[in-house]
Amino acid sequence: MRSSLSCSIRLRLAKKALAAVLVVGLGSVTIASLAQAHPLAQTAGEGEALFQSKCTPCHTIGGGRLVGPDLEGVTARRTKEWLTKWISAPDQMLAAKDPIATQLLQENNNVPMPNLALTETEVAALIAYFETNPTVLPPQQPALPAGNAAIGRQLFTGATRFQNGGPPCMGCHSIAGIGALGGGALGPDLTPAFNKYGDVGLATFLNTVPTATMNAVWTRQPLTPEEQADLWAFLQEASVAGRPIQALWQLSALAVGGMILLLILGQVYWRRRLVAVRRPLVARSRISS
Ligand code: HEC
Ligand code: HEC
After folding, report:
1. Which of 209, 213, 226, 237 most suits a substitution to test ligand 2, by most atoms within 8 Å of the C-beta?
2. Ligand 1: distance of its center to the CA of 67 in Å?
3. Which site from 78, 92, 181, 257 is most exposed, i.e. has the minimal number of CB atoms within 10 Å?
4. Nearest CA to ligand 1 atom 29
5. Of the candidates 186, 191, 226, which has an alpha carbon nearest to the alpha carbon of residue 207?
6. Alpha carbon nearest to ligand 1 atom 39, residue
7. Residue 165: which region, alpha, beta or left (left: phi > 0; alpha: psi -120 to 50)?
8. Where are the domains of the chain?
9. What is the pTM of this model?
């Protein structure tokens, strides 16, 4: 009994230490990106750290496609100028109908790469890193504790508060399985998120929170590993729960279609029936007059 107690205390301490390391780590990344005092720091090393924290949910280098294309040899197939523009503002390139960007979008199931709000220095560091022809295999599943979807739902809706005080996900996102009212519309509906990123990709997303708006919120108030795991489990559940809801819609569409058909048929028969009754009546009235 006592040993299992001290064991669970030790486990909790270990988790706290892990969270502290995460906070310090994220903090130093932010400080590093703020400290632009030394322009020579556009090193491949910085680019590598950035790539790990912001790009790995969607890209490998030589490890196959994830949400976006494999970036192996990207500095050979694109000019530096194009890469700089694209990594800085993919949304603007797509809006301007840049031909390469448009084709890439089509090849990637119309999933657009988000604008990650990187600085010029960061973009240069990333390109310097690509020029070293590195290999980055798909991320391993981060060692998350087993998640609890029910707790994840409570965190999502705000019924349970985040340990570091972030806003509930529902403030900006809707998702299947949180009731008819849904959530905010600043961020995309998250019902398909699990299938879009895949299990490892989503775990990496929740761990590194790479996209601009999300990053601005969650770097200051990081999700704990438990919270990440619970949200992951809830997002997985919602991606499955999304399907019956769709099926329900299809069923009710069928039902409505069936009713319309019945109404049309009914009306046709109803009229004919009247015709059939009227004719003899008319005939009789003619005879009697
Ligand atoms: C949310 C997923 C996502 C994230 C995060 C992401 N990308 Fe992308 N990226 C894509 C998609 C999808 C495409 C394909 C173009 C499109 O559909 O918009 C793409 C295309 C690219 C291309 C062009 C590839 C080619 O073949 O020309 C480069 C370069 C690139 N991304 C670099 C990055 C870098 C660097 C980061 C991190 C700073 C990053 N991406 C983060 C999804 C992402
Ligand atoms: C302040 C508003 C806000 C909050 C709160 C928020 N998000 Fe987001 N989220 C966004 C926006 C906006 C995007 C689109 C990408 C971006 O700009 O970051 C996004 C994107 C995402 C994506 C990627 C979706 C896709 O289709 O690519 C996931 C996953 C996600 N959020 C999960 C969460 C989770 C889990 C929480 C709660 C812990 C949360 N978000 C809280 C605004 C928010």
Report:
1. 213
2. 8
3. 181
4. 83
5. 226
6. 55
7. left
8. 1-28, 36-130, 149-244
9. 0.64
Ligand 1 within 6 A of CB of 172: no
Check pocket membership of 85 for ligand 1, CB cut-off 6 A: no
At the second CATH level, the architecture of 36-130 is Orthogonal Bundle (1.10)
242: CB partners within 8 A, 6+ apart? 176, 177, 191, 192
Ligand that comes closest to the CA of residue 95: 1
For residues 201-214, b (16+ Cβ closer than 10 Å) or e, as one string? Answer: bbbbbbbbbbbeeb
Give the separation between CA 242 and CA 119, rounded to whole angstroms. Answer: 37
* Interval between CA 10 and ligand 2 midpoint (Å): 33
Q: pLDDT digits over 212-270, tens only?
A: 888 888 888 999 999 999 999 999 999 887 655 555 555 566 666 667 777 776 676 66
Residue 70 CA to ligand 1 center (angstroms) comes to: 9
- Whose C-alpha lies nearest to ligand 1, atom 37? 55
Please give the Cα distance from 212 to 113 (Å, whole number).
Answer: 11
- When the pLDDT of each residue in the chain is averaged and rounded to a whole number, the result is 80
The token duo for 212 is 């601009």
Say yes or no: CB of residue 104 within 6 Å of ligand 1. yes
The pLDDT value recorded for residue 31 is 47
91-147 tens-digit pLDDT: 999 999 999 999 999 988 788 898 999 999 999 999 999 999 999 998 776 667 789
